[in-house]
Amino acid sequence: MQYNALKGAILIIVCTLFSFSIAPNTSIEGSSYQERFKNLYTTIPLQWNTDVQKEVEQYLRYEDDLVNIIQRKDLYFPLVQSALSKYQIPEELACITIIESKINPDASDGNGHVGMWQMNSTAAQMFDLKINKIMDERRDPYFSSEAAAQYLKYLHDRFGDWLLAIAAYNCGEGTVSAAIKKSGNVYDYWKIRKHLPSVTRQYIPKLFAAIYLTRFYHEHGINPPMVFDNLMFDEIVTLDNEVYLSEVAAIYNVELADLQRINPCIYKTFIPSEYAPIRIKIPFKPPHWNYATPKDEVYSHIEENLDRKLPLAFKSLEMRNISEVAMEDYIPDMKFENK
């Protein structure tokens, strides 16, 4: 009996010592996270708490997923954030796409939510996204971001608070309104949180964790290789009759494959007039650039093309200076040597 008791005591001591030797010091890690978190500059009010820390640690457990997310961020966020800025939406809300789809334009949850913003057909059509057998504009990174920006602006105008708008994006404005009423008509996310669905209660901490990691991923040993694909475009044309993508490509002297790549929401190369009007993005095509081209010359090319004459088939032309926005991210103030 005494032997068994002694053996049990020794086992407890060994286990205790072992656990101390391998357990991470989460209080120290959490303190480091919190210090960095305080240095984030954002429009929306951030708040560090244990839920946010848990979400950060959850992302870090799946390093391969996080590497993919950071690579997609570098690829898509210039487009997404330029669409958000058009409607004065805080640029950090681009991170909603991390929670919704891991920034995957082709994502579908099987329940009618599609694209990087995971919009359903009702919300999409409310903001003029086309969904039919020829195209689904929810799969377009820029068009879907414009629609999401309009939706977020509408929600912010209704609730007067970004966190409530974000919560409503997740669970619906009716659910948030009901939670506000249950809380005595208090328009404060943290005070109504207990009356929200469990998924929405974690939505804001997930967003804060995503914002943190998009800024400080390198502090956690995440250094993904750069992935670059030219998704920039000079302009958006709207056509009011039938469209052959090959003809559009020929008019603008771009490759058909490039036109299709930059318009992923269009499934067919021929679009009948019954689906008009149709929006098509024209790829950004540097004409004769090399590494000796000064940035001023690049911008000059963009400005010159604003006055490009279009065939009568084109009903309207809406210019997007996306090229300039994206170039600030990819080639700031750079001038190269001659090859």
Tell me about this structure.
This protein is mainly alpha-helical. It has 3 domains: about 1-35; about 50-220, Lysozyme (Orthogonal Bundle); about 235-330. It has 15 helices and 5 strands. The chain has helices at about 1-20, 25-40, 50-60, 65-85, 95-100, 120-125, 140-160, 160-170, 175-180, 190, 200-215, 245-250, 255-260, 295-305, 320-330; strands at about 235-240, 245, 270, 280-285, 315-320. Strands 4-1-5 form a 3-stranded antiparallel β-sheet. Strands 2-3 form a two-stranded antiparallel sheet. Helix 3 crosses helix 11 and helix 8 (about 160-170) crosses helix 11. The longest helix has 24 residues, at about 65-85. The chain starts with a helix and ends in a 9-residue tail after the last helix. The relative contact order is 0.11. Residues about 1-30 and about 305-339 have low confidence and may be disordered.
The major beta sheet can be summarized as: 3 strands, antiparallel
* SSE order, one letter for each helix or strand: HHHHHHHHHHHEEHHEEHEH
- CATH topology type of the largest domain: Lysozyme
Please give the order of strands in the largest beta sheet. 4-1-5
Mean pLDDT value: 81
Number of domains: 3
What would the principal axes of the Cα set say about the shape? globular
Total helix count?
15
Separation, N- and C-terminal Cα atoms = 86 Å
Overall SS class: mainly alpha
The CATH class designation of the largest domain is Mainly Alpha
Structure in a nutshell:
With 339 residues, this protein is mainly alpha-helical. The longest helix has 24 residues, at 63-86.
